[in-house]
Amino acid sequence: MTTSLDFAALWPYWPELLAGLWTTVTLTTLATVGGVAIGIVGAALRSGKPGVMSAIWGAYVELIRNTPFVVQLFFIVFGLPSLGLKLTAGEAALIAMLVNLGAYSTEIIRAGIQVAPKGQWEAARVLGLSKSQTFLRVILPPALKRIYPALVSQCIIVMLGSSVVSQVSYEELTFMANLIQSRTFLSFEVYFVTTLLYLMLSLLMRQLLLAIGRKWLGSEA
């Protein structure tokens, strides 16, 4: 039994694949920027003196890190409407990715902050800097430099995990691949091309984020 592959048959469907790829890129960009910002805020709260906000944020981090992303997504899509909060598939996908990356980046950034020498805090205090100025100008930059490769890897993991949002009919790359496969029945060809697109996106994203790190943080990764 022989099997012939027909990649040429996918040519008419490239606009759909590229549209899905662009949606994935847009979703990932928003989630990366927002998720890292959430992580910085969370790391600041978790690195300070124990308090109510620190405890609440810690509970949020543990909840997200110990539950599947698909369950988080389904809760936002199907659970929140029961409370009267209705979201589009795109809004739900973005919120799920923000919440997920925010939790993981909180712990990654906090790890970089915890190894900061105490002398940095003391020197900033002697210079008359406020706590917020000390954190943003003295502690955070070297902390980000230390953990930047791990943070980049986590952002890529979240990007790859975005394929799950196809389950709620959000028209990103995997959704389009499934749609094309259902029309053409070219399973191998469709998912082989989709795999290559995700691989290309991962490599480009890594190089872009590392270049940003070298420019703004002086990271050597």
UniProtKB/TrEMBL annotation:
UniProt xrefs under PROSITE patterns: ABC_TM1 (PS50928)
Keywords carried by this UniProt record: Amino-acid transport, Cell inner membrane, Cell membrane, Membrane, Transmembrane, Transmembrane helix, Transport
GO process annotations (BP): amino acid transport
Membrane topology: Multi-pass membrane protein
Keyword Cell inner membrane: yes
Top-level taxon: Bacteria
Localization of this protein: Cell inner membrane; Cell membrane
Domain spans labelled ABC transmembrane type-1: 21-209
Protein name, entry field: Amino acid ABC transporter permease
